[in-house]
Inverse folding.
C-alpha cells in the first residue's frame, strides 16, 4: 500500500527566510509526486510535480521540490518566504507501477505554513 | 478553478435525510473525483468516474453513491446523512489518467446535525 507522511502539522518561518515543508512517501514501484496548496475556503491548487528526470523540480510561485529516491522524500522548498505563502500544503503520491484502471493518488494530511512578518 | 463549479457551497442538513452535491465542469474532461477533507486525514477519495455512467468506489465510499449521466456533471449523494459525514467535499477533474495533476473545485461544506 502506498502512503505519504507529512511529519509537521505546522511550520513557522519568518518572512524572507527560506522555508522547507517535509514529505516522505512509500510506494511499491516508482512514484509520481505532487505538491498542492490550499488557501482558506478554497480548493487545492497544483504547485508542482515530479514524474521523472531532474530531481529538482520547479513550480509555481517560486516553489521547488527535491526528489530523493534513497530517502523516499520530496520536500517542498522556497528560498525566501512571503506572508502570502501562508496556507495549507499537501503532498501526494501515485505509484506508476500499478497498471490499468484508476491509479490511486494518496494525499498527506497537510502541513500548515505560517509566514511571520 | 479550472472550470469546476460545486453546488451548493454550504449546506446544513438533518441526520437521516438524503443530500446531493453537484459538480459541474466545462472542459469535457473524462476523469472526475469526489474527495472529502477532514482534519487529521487529509483528502480521501469517495468515488470516481472515468466516463459517462462509468464510476467506481474509492477508499471511503460507504454511505455514498454517485451518478454521471453527462460528461459535465458528477453527482454525489449521501443516501441517509449521518454526523460522521460532516465534512468539506471537493470535486476534482483530471485531464487524462496518466501523469497529470488534478484540478479542484472550491468545495462544499456540509454539516449534518
Amino acid at each position: 500500500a502506498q502512503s505519504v507522511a507529512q511529519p509537521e502539522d505546522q511550520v513557522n518561518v519568518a518572512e524572507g527566510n527560506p522555508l522547507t515543508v517535509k514529505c516522505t512517501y512509500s510506494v511499491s514501484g516508482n512514484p509520481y509526486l505532487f505538491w498542492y496548496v490550499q488557501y482558506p475556503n478554497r480548493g487545492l491548487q497544483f504547485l508542482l510535480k515530479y514524474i521523472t528526470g531532474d530531481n529538482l523540480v520547479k513550480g509555481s510561485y517560486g516553489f521547488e521540490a527535491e526528489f530523493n529516491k534513497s530517502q523516499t522524500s520530496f520536500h517542498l522548498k522556497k528560498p525566501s518566504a512571503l506572508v502570502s505563502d501562508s496556507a495549507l500544503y499537501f503532498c501526494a503520491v501515485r505509484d506508476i507501477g500499478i497498471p490499468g484502471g484508476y491509479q490511486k493518488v494518496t494525499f498527506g494530511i497537510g502541513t500548515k505554513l505560517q509566514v511571520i512578518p | 478553478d479550472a472550470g469546476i463549479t460545486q453546488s451548493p457551497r454550504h449546506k446544513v442538513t438533518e441526520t437521516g435525510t438524503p443530500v446531493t452535491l453537484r459538480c459541474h465542469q466545462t472542459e469535457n474532461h473524462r476523469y472526475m473525483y469526489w474527495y472529502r477533507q477532514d482534519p487529521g486525514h487529509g483528502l480521501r477519495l469517495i468515488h470516481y468516474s472515468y466516463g459517462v455512467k462509468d464510476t467506481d468506489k474509492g477508499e471511503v465510499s460507504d454511505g455514498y453513491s454517485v451518478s454521471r449521466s453527462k460528461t459535465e456533471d458528477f453527482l454525489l449523494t449521501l443516501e441517509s446523512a449521518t454526523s460522521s459525514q460532516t465534512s468539506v467535499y471537493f470535486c476534482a477533474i483530471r485531464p487524462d489518467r496518466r501523469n497529470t495533476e488534478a484540478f479542484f473545485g472550491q468545495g462544499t461544506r456540509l454539516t449534518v446535525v
